[in-house]
Here is the input.
Amino acid sequence: MFSKKKRVERVLPRHIAMIMDGNGRWAKKRGLPRTAGHSAGSKTFKDIARYANKIGIKYLTVYAFSTENWKRPKDEVDNIMNILREYLKDAKNFKDENISMQFIGNIDVLPDDLKELISNCEEESKDATGMHLNIALNYGGRDELVHAVQGIAREVAEGRVECSEITEQLISERLYTKGQPDPDFIIRPSGEFRLSNYLIWQSAYAEFWFSDVLWPDFSPRHLEKAIDDYNLRNRRFGGV
Ligand code: FPP
Here is the structure.
């Protein structure tokens, strides 16, 4: 028999954004090179993306490489780019799972082969009706705003947009995430409490969730706990 007590349905964040932090420390704790941490982090990413799609999350954004990450040693940068290459070659798996994929960030400066893999992957997955996955690559929130402002300034100079037409909505439409809802929920593991230039415009009213767990150890169980905590939040968007 079903209980007569009405269960309160939990609300899923429509858009979750994650900062996949702690790969290096995870590897160091095991006496492994940092690259091993990124490989383990990549596996976690695949598991979490699949799980998020399975439970009905509509938008997931992950931070794979920031505009500041070029400061890392060359072999580490090469390793992350190679992980991405391998993932993209294998991304047909995601096609089977009905996930559409988009890369956000300044992709233009990346090596040609990677750009081609990215464009194939976006094209092949564009009609998927399941979760939309954004991979932030060579992404910086300030860089994104500079890019948007330059575009708008050009439109004004060419007489296509009036200054009075520059609104919050217009700016949102000039960002890499145009047409998408802002993130409702930002998850950052690894014991750090900062945004690190991630989605700085889009996160104006996001809820935040932090945890000490290092990204490679992040599991669907942690995601479930985070979503349960999200359900305890009272989002007022500046109202009462
Ligand atoms: C931050 O941890 C992690 C990165 C800068 C790289 C994240 C990249 C991956 C997990 C691979 C992504 C792959 C795909 C296919 C999207 P950190 O290195 O700063 O860790 P630390 O703070 O412990 O040093």
User: Anything to note?
Assistant: The domain at 15-138+182-230 is CATH 3.40.1180.10 (Undecaprenyl pyrophosphate synthetase). The beta strands are 15-19, 59-66, 100-104, 132-139, 185-188, 207-210. The mean pLDDT is 95.
